[in-house]
Design goal:
By secondary structure, the chain is of the alpha/beta class. Helix content is about 45%, strand content about 15%. Strand 8, helix 6 and strand 9 form a beta-alpha-beta unit. This is Short-chain dehydrogenase/reductase family 16C member 6.
Length: about 325
């Protein structure tokens, strides 16, 4: 029997007195009850969340039609699209042009698609650079007029483990994917307030509420976009001079573009969607003239219930869907 001494008193490692045994039993029982409660609680959240999403799927179009203020005239709109040269930004720009709007594309790459010169103007701009953004928005205001809609869409990803990422890589992902929303909104907002109208739309992601190894910086930036939207919406709504400015956010699931080529996702949880589908939903939000938050598809909203589950449940779900290997075959576009 092993023993050790404390202040010359011999204490045996296997000498548990009855009160200690009782404490261990009670603590174990309490832990078991807590675990079962957490499991049933998580199931309850998932089931109730699903039941809530079903009626919302059918009722939201009716609710949206009630909120429309007046017929929307696209020909009077001046829309800024960041990252409008490819992906969702490209499809959104093409759709806006077809509806008669004027579009200012902010991107470091020039659009490769054909567009009417009278409706679209390209500005070479690094949206992750505040000085570049400020001067570009001033040019847009002089050349096209006061922007009425802003689509914060630009984003980049660097698939690499966090510990192996350089400071430059981390800063770049954050500045383009998150800070661009802050900088462009900050430059455009005073013009919208002065014009007493405007609509700001942020392109977040379902990854605003979950994350993946090797894409920690990207997921964190998208989570910041969600927080930025929520705070901005509340702040603008509480000030009389900015209460006419609408704020919306979109949370797409896995978009089948070159950005995330090779990523494997559970098909029954995250349906593949196209850039065209996302662009169409963004246009519907603008046409509705009312701030909105939208998951595409709507079932993506279930991730919010996952996010409030206890950590032990999230870890089990994480292992169940093998999150560690989803980016192993990544072949997407990286800067």
């Amino acid at each position: 029997m092993n023993s050790y001494k404390i202040n010359n008193a011999s204490v045996f490692s296997n000498n548990l007195n009855p009160p200690n045994v009782l404490s261990v039993i009670l603590c174990s029982a309490a832990a078991l009850v807590l675990l079962l409660t957490s499991i049933f609680g998580a199931l309850w959240f998932l089931i109730s969340g699903t039941l809530m999403l079903i009626p919302l799927t059918f009722l939201s179009p009716i609710y949206d039609s009630i909120k429309i203020k007046k017929r929307f005239d696209w020909t009077q709109q001046i829309i800024i699209v960041t990252g409008g040269s490819n992906g969702v930004g490209e499809q959104a720009t093409k759709l806006f042009l077809s509806l008669g709007a004027k579009v200012a594309v902010l991107d470091i790459n020039k659009p490769n698609y054909e567009f009417p010169q009278s409706q679209l103007k390209y500005y070479r701009c690094d949206a992750g650079n505040s000085k570049d953004v400020e001067s570009t928005v001033k040019s847009i205001s002089k050349e096209l007029g006061t922007p009425t809609v802003l689509l914060n869409n630009v984003g980049i990803v660097k698939v690499k483990s966090f510990i192996d990422s350089s400071y430059e890589e981390l800063d770049r992902v954050n500045s383009v994917t998150f800070s661009s929303h802050v900088y462009v909104t900050r430059a455009v907002l005073p013009l919208m307030i002065q014009n007493r109208k405007g609509h700001i739309i942020s392109m977040a992601s379902i990854l605003s509420f979950s994350t993946h190894p090797k894409a920690v910086s990207y997921c964190a930036a998208k989570a910041a976009v969600h927080s930025f939207y929520e705070g901005l919406r509340q702040e603008l709504g509480s000030r009389p001079e900015s209460s006419n400015i609408e704020v919306s956010v979109v949370y797409p699931s896995h978009i089948s573009t070159g950005m995330f080529a090779g990523v494997t996702v559970p098909k029954f949880l995250m349906l593949d969607i196209t850039s065209e589908q996302v662009a169409e939903q963004v246009a519907k939000i603008i046409d509705g003239q009312k701030g909105k938050e939208m998951f595409i598809p709507k079932t993506g909203g279930l991730v919010m219930f996952y996010n409030i589950c206890p950590r032990i449940i999230r870890d089990k779900v994480y292992l169940l869907f093998n999150n560690n290997s989803r980016l192993d075959n990544f072949k997407g576009n990286q800067w």
